[in-house]
Specification:
Elements: H1 6-9, H2 16-27, H3 30-34, E1 37-39, E2 44-52, E3 71-78, E4 80-89, H4 90-96, H5 101-124, H6 137-140, E5 146-148, H7 160-168, E6 176-179, H8 181-193, E7 199-202, E8 208-212, E9 215-219, E10 234-235, E11 244-252, E12 259-263, E13 268-275, E14 278-291, E15 297-304
Parallel strand pairs: 1-12, 5-15, 6-9
Antiparallel strand pairs: 2-3, 4-14, 6-11, 7-8, 8-9, 10-11, 11-15, 12-14, 13-14
Helix pairs in contact: 2-5
């Protein structure tokens, strides 16, 4: 099945309104710029994840091998409905014209809000706490893929060796490193202090963005409610009661065997026209997330702001 990011898929939309929404959608979120999507049939997708390889070895003459099999875990990922309704007074459109700024601005704002809500869910979604949202990386990344910055109460200060270890925890080369603005500045400062030149690479839309070890650094900002997504509000995992003053950095491999989005099809943009005194446009997207390889993502947690 073909995998396309939103930026790539927008090229194939014939409806100008739909194409404009998808382009704005991709530009509004660092996650959605890189996350490719696969269209599926039905409301869920089943796939297998390798857990343990079968045993092999050497033998002597007249001896036999010990027979066994590899362990494969079946996984099912469901689709979730994300969207919103744009409702604009017809009088505003009449006064400013059909192609008016008020219509474009409201569509753009709704699109950005939805993109940021999905980006927030990408990290913090938890179906146990909210069954309407997909599980994000915060609950998916466990075991060896979860790295603690240290065992110090209140968290530990970021170092470049920590970042190197985070990258090495991924069997698939990370596509991006995701962090907040403060951590991005910290990485640049650590590189300069170590005598390394700061790096930049070309982003999805041709812009220059910072990088570390050749891996783009994607800054994760605020969600649709104006709250920092990767804020310094995570528990340090040491103190009792827990000190919620830490943040995380994620190394993520997108596409292929890595992290992939699933969808029932392209985003649906339904311009319902004038109803009563308002113009109604509904944007909906049946989508979800799957982690095809368990070591396609790693998280460095308990980093303090120092």
């Amino acid at each position: 099945m073909a995998l396309l990011t939103l930026a790539e898929s927008a090229k194939y939309y014939q409806n100008p309104l739909q194409r404009g929404i998808v382009e704005t959608f991709a530009r509004s979120s660092g996650v959605l710029q890189y996350l490719p999507f696969m269209s599926i049939s039905g409301n869920a997708y089943k796939y297998n994840v390798e857990e343990t390889l079968p045993g092999v070895g050497f033998r002597s003459i007249n001896e036999e091998y010990t027979a066994d099999i590899g362990i494969i875990n079946p996984v099912t990922e469901s689709l979730f409905i994300a969207g919103g309704e744009i409702k604009i007074d017809n009088a505003l459109i009449r006064q400013q014209g059909e192609g008016s700024d008020v219509l474009a601005e409201q569509i753009s704002m709704k699109t950005k809000a939805l993109a940021l809500a999905i980006e927030n869910c990408f990290f913090h979604g938890d179906t146990v706490a909210d069954a309407e949202k997909f599980d994000g990386l915060g609950v998916r990344v466990t075991g060896d893929q979860l790295q603690k910055a240290g065992t110090v109460a209140g968290g530990a200060t970021l170092t470049l060796p920590m970042l190197d270890e985070l990258i090495d925890r991924c069997d698939l080369p990370p596509t991006v490193l995701m962090m907040n603005k403060t951590m991005r500045r910290k990485v640049n400062a650590l590189m300069r202090a170590a005598g390394q030149a700061t790096e930049t690479v070309t982003g999805v839309f041709g812009q220059q963005i910072p990088a570390y070890a050749g891996i783009p650094i994607v800054v994760i900002g605020k969600n649709n409610a104006g709250t920092e997504i990767l804020a310094f509000d995570e528990e340090d995992g040491q103190t009792t009661p827990a000190s919620s003053t830490c943040t995380s950095i994620y190394a993520v491999s997108f596409g292929g065997e890595g992290i992939t989005g699933i969808q029932s099809g392209p985003m649906d943009v339904d311009d319902q026209g004038k109803r009563s005194t308002f113009r109604h446009i509904i944007v909906e997207w049946d989508m979800g997330l799957m982690v095809r390889h368990p070591r396609s993502v790693a998280r460095l947690k308990a980093i303090k702001n120092a």
